[in-house]
Amino acid sequence: MSLTSRVAGPALLLSPVLVFVLALVLVLGAAPAIAEDCPAKSTQMDDIIDAINAAPGCDRAMKIFEACEFGASGDVQFGAAVEKK
Q: Does any domain span residue 38?
């Protein structure tokens, strides 16, 4: 048995483990640190838009948008309210 076949064998065995660990690090690293709760009175679109409009500035309006977004086409109206800020 040559030296290269001895070295290549364990490296191939570690490869799936290494791939799993790297994937796990990427998934955990992509998660937000702390998600803010939606400060609107309810999850109704009008209440969320009212909360965005009541925000003291653009940065806070964007934070409210991020906390209250649905992840759907209804978010376009929230984004329009943030743009008005």
A: no
Give the integer Cα–Cα distance in Å for 62 and 30: 20
Higher pLDDT, 34 or 57: 57
- Indicate if 27 and 49 belong to the same structural domain: no
Q: Which residue has the tokens 């991020």?
A: 66
Structural domain boundaries, residue 53: 45-84
Overall pTM surpassing 0.85 (yes/no)? no
Helix (H) or strand (E) holding 6: helix 3-30
For tokens 């109206």, the residue is 77
**Which helix H or strand E contains 50, and what residues bound it?**
helix 45-54
Q: Tell me whether residue 40 is in a domain.
A: no
Are 23 and 43 in contact by the 8 Å Cβ rule? The answer is: no
